[in-house]
Design brief:
It comes from Aeromicrobium choanae. By secondary structure, this protein is an alpha/beta fold. It folds into 3 domains: 141 residues, GIY-YIG endonuclease; 213 residues, Rossmann fold, CATH 3.40.50; 198 residues, no CATH class. The protein contains 18 helices and 20 strands. The strands form 4 sheets. It has a 7-stranded mixed sheet. A 6-stranded parallel sheet has the order 8-7-9-10-6-11. Strand 2 and strand 3 form a beta hairpin. Helix 1 packs antiparallel against helix 2 and helix 3 crosses helix 4. The two termini are 28 Å apart.
Length: 581
């Protein structure tokens, strides 16, 4: 592959006209370009760059832009340019040096010839643009590991994600004319991009509030969808509900950093229910974590009762309805992003029967959408089911994941050291564990929570955006601080709340070793009780989440010796230290 070059000049009619005459490729070859001003940047791709930039000069926003930078390469084609354009938009949005003027386009995340080699070149292009003052001082890996990059709405959707977005928009369009309001359910395994779809939709709908600018804006996703008239969704009031505190705080920061999304509130179900005006669209991420009433909610139990009585006067005790009912009552178009197998607290989370009924209802209403393609893990689509089946000893043979760094450890010290090494190499590598140890350090700051074979460790010191906190590498994250996040590498400790029962010849739940405060209690207020077998399913759900956080690899240590021996045959051992690169 030959090298690229970057041409730059003033963003003016005269300068663009002069530049167009210098080479045929300037108006007849696939290129990617960035146009920047003191505070704003626009990124585009075109096979007719000079012509397109003349159009940009007619935009009402042209006065915000001063200089253009065009990336030229003899080997570029349309697919490469679409990929590079999206990549640079995400980097600019994550860098926060400029306000990104782009709206979402209709590009797809598609493979193409020699993509890996081109992706290597993208790194050099980033460095060259940074040398020209277009990026701040952060390294590329810092930007790529940031929440603003990973949770960016500026993504090329997979085909299944694009189909999901098109289907949702079509349903909303139809519902605006028929006044039918039933939940839209988007179901997906870990790593299929439920949050990506939610954030993308929020930005797309928010963008439609602004007048389309043909001189600058590309054809938007919605305007390219025949089934959807943008006018029908242009004025919808949008809210984004996230039940989990950690992920909610992270998404708030993401939304605040992106124009259009900064007007979309990221809220709790309580806040949605108490909003007097209500919403047209409520997107609910991790909707399986919406709550039912429980006296163990402590300070929120009276608030829960009050909301139920206000929204549903027939609910005299204020305990019958769930937060799912609130979402349905306070929005015209509830869009629920969920995975029924990621419910982890039986007492507090929506009951499995409610989620099952919700999915069945959505199927009947033709409002059920399935996400299939695995986006997070390099292990691919087989990995999620494999790792759960192996953990529960329902797997009958071992599968090798060639492109995925999967390891099974006998030495917890070695696993932790390897996670430290991966973090030094690529960043965003963390230790995670099931809730098999009490959170002693929450009150006794200097007392370790977890002790295994002489290794003492602390639980996460914060429950807000822990993964990106300064001390996260030295700590161990739990389900509540890791669900919904991506890591490069995850070191997962399977705690002593799971063990192998030789008599029963099965994996069993050990209640006395489980310390999630609301994870194993009975819901006395609603008369719900849970057997050890019931709770086993929820704990397996916990590990289903933890074992699917790693993009590049997952390292596993099992505390129970008998269970460790049973699981060993399904996972490769770490390489010998002398052979480690």
């Amino acid at each position: 592959m030959t090298g690229f070059k970057i041409k730059r000049d003033r963003f003016s009619h005269d300068a663009v006209a002069h530049w167009a005459k210098l080479e045929v490729a300037h108006d007849d070859w696939p290129v990617v370009y960035a146009i920047d001003g003191s505070d704003h940047v626009y990124i585009g791709e075109s096979v007719n760059a000079a012509t397109r930039m003349r159009q940009h000069l007619d935009s009402p926003k042209a006065h915000l832009l001063d200089r253009f930078h065009v990336v030229l390469d003899d080997t570029f084609n349309k697919s490469v340019c679409l990929d590079l354009e999206t990549y640079l938009i995400r980097l600019f949005a994550a860098d926060q040096r400029f306000t990104v003027l782009n709206k979402q386009t209709n590009s797809r995340n598609s493979n193409y010839y020699d993509r890996a080699q081109y992706r290597t070149r993208f790194t050099a292009i980033f460095e060259a643009l940074r040398d020209q003052g277009l990026f701040d001082t952060k390294r590329l890996d810092e930007l790529e590991n940031s929440n603003l990059f990973k949770l960016s709405p500026f993504v090329s959707l997979t085909q299944t994600q694009a189909v999901a977005v098109e289907a949702i928009l079509a349903i909303v369009q139809e519902s605006t004319s028929t006044n039918i309001s039933e939940p839209i359910v988007v179901q997906g395994d870990p790593g299929t991009g439920k949050t990506v779809v939610g954030v993308f939709l929020a930005k797309l709908l928010a963008d439609l509030h602004d007048t389309f600018d043909p001189a600058l804006d590309e054809e938007t996703f919605a305007e390219d969808t025949d089934a959807v008239a943008p006018a029908a969704v242009r004025t919808l009031r949008i809210g984004f509900v996230v039940p989990q505190q950690s992920l909610r705080n992270t998404l708030k920061k993401v939304f605040e950093g992106i124009p259009a999304l900064d007007s979309v509130p990221v809220i709790t179900a309580f806040e949605a229910a108490e909003d007097e005006a209500g919403f047209d669209v409520l997107l609910v991420d991790e909707a399986h974590r919406l709550q039912q009433f429980s006296g163990a909610l402590q300070t929120n139990s009276s608030r829960f009762r009050r909301i139920n009585r206000e929204l549903f006067p027939d609910d005299l005790e204020g305990t019958v309805h769930t937060q799912l009912d609130w979402i349905r009552a306070k929005s015209r178009f509830p869009i629920l992003l969920l995975d029924a197998k990621q419910s982890v607290r039986p007492m507090a989370d929506l009951p499995a029967s409610v989620v099952a009924d919700l999915i069945d209802e959505a199927r009947v209403q033709e409002r059920f959408i399935r996400l299939w393609t695995q986006m997070r893990s390099l292990a691919g689509d087989e990995y999620v089911d494999y790792v759960v089946n192996a953990l529960t000893l329902h797997q009958d043979h071992r599968i090798e994941f060639v492109d995925y760094d999967l390891r099974f450890y006998d030495d917890i010290h070695r696993m932790r050291q390897d996670i430290f090494e991966r973090d030094a190499e690529v960043g965003l590598s963390r230790m995670l564990a099931g809730f098999a140890w009490p959170w002693v350090s929450k009150k006794q700051k200097h007392t370790p929570d977890i002790s295994i074979d002489g290794l003492s460790m602390f639980w996460n010191r914060t429950d807000k955006d822990w993964i990106n906190s300064p001390t996260a590498l030295e700590e161990v994250g739990c389900i509540h601080t890791s669900q919904g996040y991506d890591l490069n590498y995850a070191g997962v400790i399977i705690g002593p709340e799971l063990s192998w029962d030789e008599t029963r010849q099965s994996v069993v739940f050990v209640r006395q070793n489980y310390h999630d405060r609301n994870g194993a209690k009975n819901n006395v207020a609603l008369g719900q009780s849970y057997t050890d077998d019931d709770l086993l399913d929820y704990v397996v759900n916990v590990y289903r989440v933890l074992l699917t956080r790693g993009i590049r690899g997952t390292y596993i240590y099992v505390c129970d010796p008998a269970l460790r021996e049973k699981l060993r045959r399904f996972f490769p051992s770490p390489p010998h230290p002398l052979l480690h690169p």
